[in-house]
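pasting for ref
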Amino acid sequence: QVQLVESGGGLVQAGASLRLSCVASGRGFSSYGMGWFRQAPGKEREFVAAITWSGGRIYYADSVKGRFTISRDNDKNTMYLQLNSLKPEDTAVYYCAGDLENLRVGPRISGNYESWGQGTQVTVSS
């Protein structure tokens, strides 16, 4: 099992940028597919982005495509989410997640991930 710790959230104005980081500990990070999900108050957890162990396959939600960029550095056991052109509707707790099957199926489905971080708050004001 891999343990995940997130950081980088904050309070910003619309149009600003943030970079979220997810640092993994334990063996096996390089073999995990990784994803980002978010959950706003009163709403269901929703898919944001995902990336396979090699970076060969990348997935984005339509709502963030062109604004957010997912990446990973396996040598540093870290996954990133670059959030640009932030909008108030991006306000949510952002979670990183790991899939030991490397996104073999359903990369947009939260139930297919086995490891989760604690979440980091992103708040975007008007």
